[in-house]
């Protein structure tokens, strides 16, 4: 039997003791109405509304700064089979499936490089009185996102830029000669936009497993182009087709890219400001029953998220205000992938 | 308990004389072991369908008030048909009650995801614990969600001790526009949830650890007010409802042994919530050698409770895209472990 009465009696005795000895305590003084009216609550939550193309939006904003380093063994959204909304997809596949997901990294001495978030929000999209979409987003985000990406539905702009050295390393003799005709040397800086694709180079924002150059995309010349504009013109002859430029592979499994920078990591954050310097604005994960346009909080433009579960990694602004892809990799990283950074304390490096 | 009673009686007798109170040293205090008390909620039925609570002073971007009306709250036995047929329910029972206890850290146990009971609180501290009915392993364990084995069979509450719970929020977001959210939980149980608090001598502050377990056969979110335009027939209401079936969440914050949950309020009135890095520095600020860090990390990953959120099926409306609905299928966050977290609020 539990001694509940005894405990209650003891508690009552303690309260009485406190009351009896009240003369020894500092006296509480009530605030006058005028004083009380000066006390304001901390407004760390507000609601904002918006509308676009017949959809009404309500966003609940949280005034918070979050620093974190975390690991998730499995992040899985939208595992369903539907021949109408997901035609041609493998049975059992998911809109979003990332194993060993992590935010932030760990140094060799077990100190932490946190993933920083400011102003997270929850937003609902209404068509009339029907909810057609929900998204969780970060007003600002900066840090390293890691994971073994198995499938991804969404928007992830990728810019590949670097010297042509790794391209030469992959090219055969004939292709090296062609590149030479185009005025390209190993030190020439080339660039290409990449996006979510199928293994045949068709763009594929739904349950994608690969990223790379879509069919028809060409390498661009940034600097060191010995034939100037002619180099670009000659390079445009080598459009990516079937995930190849000449015999160079231009598409890569998403699982090769294991640690991705979000935001401009070259810019140091100032502890003196609530804002996160160099942050990417508009990172979100959403679920919608139809294609829904969500507002990009950086550009104030609406961007369409496809029905189902969707992840958006937005571009961020560089020091000159130019929009930059969140994933900037060189050709070597594109060919070889980006190795996983340590995200675990102690001896483990992933999957903890 | 006897020691506590003696101390209390002594205080009563000496109140008028204002005798000096003698502090117990840590060793004496750690010997205090209250048995605590348990209680069950017998025949509970809450029906606030006629009441409205209005929350003010949450503003929009222009600083204007956005009133939030809270209404249609109910809590009763399962099978209530979203509160339409309310009956009393017993929550907890005498051998598995809600509990408020004062116990030594080494006596408390937490159920790990693999079914093992482990100590998560530090030894030689007195811990104040608020606890929901415990979970059970082995014989006597009940399915936490009926017909869904993945949620485990280690709840102590029987089917008749689950509740139906509902509440409605009206957000008057703009002139002529009110967003409605109706929440209806079916067969909800929170076994194994707890909040543990204790004083951390080296940090000089109150610390704790918390676990919130939610198991529900279904959670429905309807975005219209029943009986209003487009929200009258069952078909219209279904079309405006998100349904989470066989949903559960185990939310874990803190691992008392090496990563207690810290809460604080800054001098400007903002709250700070922190889960410190468990390995880099001892509580006194000194750096730890590699072997010690590795040992703490190994214990942390093996025994610290993790957060899981699983929705076996999530659908909008009928779940069929061709009739305006959508079936989002299975969704899960599994094995979330936080190495470091610091949340600081600020004014918007």
Q: How much helical structure, as a percent, in the residues of chain A?
A: 10-25%
**Class computed from helices, strands and strand pairing of chain B:** mainly beta
Number of helices of chain B: 4
* Assembly annotation: heterodimer
Unreliable residue stretches of chain A: 1-25
Q: Residue-averaged pLDDT of chain A, rounded?
A: 85
- Rg on CA atoms of chain B, Å: 24 Å
Biggest interface reads: A-B, 80 and 81 residues
Strand order of the largest sheet of chain B: 13-14-17-18-16-15
Work out the strand percent of chain A.
Answer: 35-45%
Overall number of strands of chain A: 24
Structural class of chain A: mainly beta
Taken from the alpha-carbon principal axes, the silhouette of chain B is globular
SSE run of chain A: HHEEEEEEEEEEHHEEEHEEEEEEEEEEEH
What does this structure look like?
The complex is a heterodimer of chains A (352) and B (348). Chain A has 352 residues and is mainly beta. Chain A is 14% helix and 40% strand. Chain A is built from 6 helices and 24 strands. In chain A, strands 1, 2, 3, 4, 7, 8, 9, 17, 18 and 21 form a 10-stranded mixed beta sheet that branches. In chain A, strands 10, 11, 12, 13, 16 and 24 form a 6-stranded mixed beta sheet that branches. In chain A, strands 5-6 form a two-stranded antiparallel ribbon. Chain A is globular. Chain B is mainly beta and 348 residues long. In chain B, a hairpin with a 4-residue loop joins strand 12 (194-200) and strand 13 (205-222). The longest helix of chain B has 14 residues, at 290-303. Classes of the chains: A mainly beta (352), B mainly beta (348). The interface between A and B is large, with 80 and 81 residues. Strand 3 (64-79) of chain A pairs antiparallel with strand 18 of chain B, so a sheet runs across the interface.
């Amino acid at each position: 039997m539990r001694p509940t009465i005894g405990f209650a009696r003891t508690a009552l005795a303690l309260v009485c003791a406190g009351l009896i000895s009240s003369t020894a305590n500092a006296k509480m003084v009530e605030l006058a109405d005028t004083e009380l009216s000066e006390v304001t609550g901390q407004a760390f939550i507000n609601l904002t509304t918006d509308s676009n193309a017949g959809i009404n939006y309500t966003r609940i904003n949280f005034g918070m700064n979050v620093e974190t380093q975390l690991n998730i063994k499995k992040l899985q959204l939208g595992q369903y089979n539907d021949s109408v909304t997901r035609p041609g997809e493998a049975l059992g596949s998911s809109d979003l499936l990332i194993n060993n997901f992590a935010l932030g990294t760990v140094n060799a001495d077990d100190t932490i490089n946190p993933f920083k978030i400011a102003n997270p929000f929850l937003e609902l999209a209404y068509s009339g009185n029907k909810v057609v979409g929900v998204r969780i987003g970060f007003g600002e985000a900066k840090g390293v996102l890691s994971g073994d990406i198995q499938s991804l539905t969404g928007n992830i702009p990728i810019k590949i830029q670097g010297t042509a050295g790794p391209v030469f390393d992959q090219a055969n003799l004939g292709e090296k000669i062609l590149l030479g005709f185009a005025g390209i040397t190993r030190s020439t800086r080339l660039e290409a936009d990449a996006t979510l694709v199928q293994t045949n180079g068709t763009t594929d924002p739904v349950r994608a497993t690969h990223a790379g150059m879509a069919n028809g995309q060409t390498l661009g010349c940034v600097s060191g182009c010995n034939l100037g504009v002619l180099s670009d013109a000659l390079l445009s002859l080598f459009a990516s087709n079937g995930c190849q430029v000449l015999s160079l592979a231009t598409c890569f499994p998403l699982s090769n890219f294991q640690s991705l920078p979000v935001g401009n990591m070259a810019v140091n954050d100032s502890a003196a400001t609530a804002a996160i310097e160099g942050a990417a604005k508009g990172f979100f994960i959403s679920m919608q029953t139809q294609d829904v346009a969500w507002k990009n909080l950086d550009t104030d433009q609406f961007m369409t998220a496809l029905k189902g579960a969707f992840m958006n990694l937005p571009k961020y602004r560089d020091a000159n205000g130019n929009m930059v892809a969140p994933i900037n990799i060189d050709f070597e990283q594109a060919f070889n992938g980006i190795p996983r950074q340590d995200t675990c304390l102690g001896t483990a490096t992933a999957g903890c | 308990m006897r020691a506590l009673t003696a101390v209390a009686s002594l205080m009563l007798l000496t109140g008028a004389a204002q005798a000096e109170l003698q502090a117990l040293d840590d060793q004496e205090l750690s010997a205090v072991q209250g048995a605590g008390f348990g209680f069950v909620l017998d025949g509970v039925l809450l029906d606030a369908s006629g009441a409205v609570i209005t929350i003010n002073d949450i503003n929009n971007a222009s600083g204007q008030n956005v009133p939030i009306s809270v209404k249609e709250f109910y809590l009763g036995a399962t099978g209530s048909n979203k509160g339409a047929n309310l009956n009393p329910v017993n929550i907890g029972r005498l051998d598995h009650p809600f509990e408020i206890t004062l116990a030594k850290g080494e006596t408390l146990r937490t159920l790990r995801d693999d079914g093992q009971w482990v100590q998560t609180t530090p030894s030689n501290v007195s811990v104040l614990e608020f606890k929901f009915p415990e979970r059970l392993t082995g014989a006597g364990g009940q399915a936490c969600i009926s017909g869904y084995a993945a949620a485990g069979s280690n709840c102590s509450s029987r089917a008749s001790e689950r509740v139906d719970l509902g509440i409605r929020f009206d957000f008057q977001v703009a002139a002529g526009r009110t967003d409605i959210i109706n929440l209806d939980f079916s067969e909800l149980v929170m076994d194994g949830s707890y909040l543990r608090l204790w004083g951390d001598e080296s940090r000089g502050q109150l610390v704790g650890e918390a676990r919130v377990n939610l198991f529900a056969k279904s959670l429905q979110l309807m975005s219209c007010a029943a009986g209003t335009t487009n929200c009258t027939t069952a078909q219209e209401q279904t079309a405006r409802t998100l349904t989470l079936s066989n949903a559960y969440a185990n939310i874990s914050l803190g691992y008392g042994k090496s990563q207690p949950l810290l809460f604080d309020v800054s001098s400007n009135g903002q709250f700070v919530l922190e889960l410190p890095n468990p390995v880099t520095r001892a509580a006194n600020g000194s750096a730890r050698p590699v072997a010690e860090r590795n040992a703490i990390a190994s214990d942390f990953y093996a025994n610290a409770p993790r957060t899981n959120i699983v929705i076996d099926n999530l659908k909008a409306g009928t779940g069929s895209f061709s009739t305006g609905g959508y079936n989002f299928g299975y969704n899960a966050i599994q094995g979330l472990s936080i190495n470091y977290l610091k949340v600081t609020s600020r004014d918007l």
